[in-house]
Specification:
Layout lengths: L7 H18 L2 H10 L7 H15 L8 E2 L3 H20 L7 H17 L7 H24 L25 H19 L5 H21 L2 H17 L3 H11 L2 H20 L1 H26 L11 H17 L3 H4 L11 H34 L3 H19 L6 H13 L13 H4 L3 E2 L1
Parallel strand pairs: 1-2
Length: 443
């Protein structure tokens, strides 16, 4: 973590690019805080549109359409193919109507994609810092929001309550947990390559804080996402030799001081806020009960006497039934049309709504994302791409448990992955002469 990158005088363009990308990548928690907690702006999608428009304005370069940077070509072709296919269905095979919100989503998706092609490669170090700092700030605003929410009590799912009429009561805890994952991941990937002991302590306790936010959000998909990311680390990167090298390095004076400060910090926290630990353990018990409910709903096996039907899991069971009906009908080829059925399983909905071609594009895109994520975790190119690789593993859970295949909650991160994941960076390529660097498209 290089604090000098926050110097506006020397790093202005990279900072504004990074802030704009971070606002698109993870803007919803900040939107909810400003709009619903602080009461600034209209409590509607208009404020969201203004927020994203501001983010895109921050990304506009001085060399617009004059200098482009090469994305991951395979991901670009598959992702763009799916988006164009769904856009065709939106205009011509659509029984649900053409809402302003859907049009706005496509405008922001394609606008974000175009501007990402103009963002230079050396933004990567600034971007990972901004993603971390913005998500950490949003975690703090979450604590402020729930402490000032008269309807929230310990034990409830943590989220910013929506202010607009008829909104989902209690806010959206999945957005809260996702922000916690982003903060935890970005802090972890920077922690290993940060030299200063106080910066390391700051990152370490920010990671712990983020883990606490994930726990109190009580989102099953995020718990599973954390488990998948840990499993990916042990399968793809962990080596037994790392244990011995870590033990050896722990006895170095600097590292011993770091460990002592961590122990003292945790001890002080437990003494001062012991009830917080009890609350987190209570959330974990609630999570176990929810998992047992899902098992009972999906399989009919009642492991405990208290297990009950889980409404969200029951909805996905019904969605799978819609998929099997489509599979054995003529709709298997072209699908039923744009947003014809809400399955809550994006991978299957891509087939039900858009036929075999929609599934091939969407599933193929995610398959290659998985391949590039595995490759990146194994080799660790830089903190940003490592963060994106692990974050994709967390998104894999949602492909089977929630959302729609064209949600901007998917596609804003997907577009950043298209631009940065699995390509060669300038700092990894030998410097060429000035005449060979002046090209329209750089890799």
């Amino acid at each position: 973590m290089n604090w000098s990158l926050l110097n506006i005088a020397t790093n202005f363009n990279n900072l504004r690019y990074s802030i704009g990308i971070a606002m698109m990548f993870n803007g919803f928690p900040l939107i909810f805080f400003i709009r619903d907690t602080l009461g600034i702006g209209p409590a509607s999608s208009v404020f969201t549109a203004i927020f994203f428009a501001l983010a895109l304005c921050l990304m506009v370069p001085m060399h617009l359409f004059k200098r482009l940077y090469k994305p991951n070509v395979i991901l670009f072709n598959l992702g763009l193919g799916f988006l164009l296919l769904t856009l065709y269905y939106f205009f011509f095979i659509n029984k649900q109507g053409k809402s302003v919100a859907d049009i706005g989503n496509y405008v922001f998706i394609f606008g974000f994609l175009i501007l990402l092609m103009h963002v230079p490669n050396d933004v990567k170090d600034t971007l990972i810092m901004i993603l971390f700092l913005m998500s950490l700030f949003t975690n703090i605003t979450l604590v402020y929001s729930i402490l000032n929410d008269p309807n929230w009590t310990p034990g409830m799912r943590a989220a910013v309550s929506f202010a607009n009429e008829g909104a989902q009561p209690g806010g959206n805890p999945h957005i809260t947990a996702r922000n916690g994952i982003i903060c935890m991941l970005s802090g972890m990937v920077m922690l290993g390559r940060t030299p200063g002991i106080f910066t390391k302590l700051f990152l370490f306790f920010s990671v712990l804080f983020s883990l606490g936010v994930i726990v109190i959000a009580l989102a099953k998909s995020s718990y599973l996402a954390v488990g998948i990311m840990i499993l990916a680390y042990f399968i793809l990167q962990f080596k037994i030799s790392n244990v011995f090298s870590a033990i050896g390095s722990a006895f170095k004076m600097k590292n011993m001081a770091f460990i002592v400060l961590i122990i003292l910090g945790i001890r002080y926290f437990l003494i001062r806020y012991g009830n917080v630990l009890d609350m987190l353990l209570g959330y974990w018990d609630a999570f176990e009960n929810r998992i047992l409910d899902v098992i009972f709903t999906s399989t009919g096996v009642r492991i405990t006497e208290t297990a009950d039907t889980d409404a969200s899991a029951m909805g996905r069971v019904g969605g799978f039934g819609e998929f099997t009906e489509t599979l054995f009908s003529w709709d298997v080829f072209l699908g039923r049309g744009y947003k014809s059925d809400y399955l809550d399983i994006p991978l299957l909905e891509s087939w039900v709504s858009h036929g075999v071609f929609g599934f091939v594009f969407f599933a193929g895109f995610n398959f290659f994302l998985f391949v590039y994520a595995v490759r990146e975790v194994r080799r660790y190119t830089n903190p940003l791409t490592t963060f994106l690789a692990y974050f994709f593993f967390s998104l894999m859970v949602l492909l089977f448990t929630g959302g729609r295949p064209y949600d901007i909650a998917f596609w804003f991160p997907y577009l950043v992955m298209i631009r940065f994941l699995g390509i060669k960076y300038l700092d990894n390529i030998p410097r060429r002469s000035a005449t060979t660097q002046l090209t329209t498209v750089t890799s």
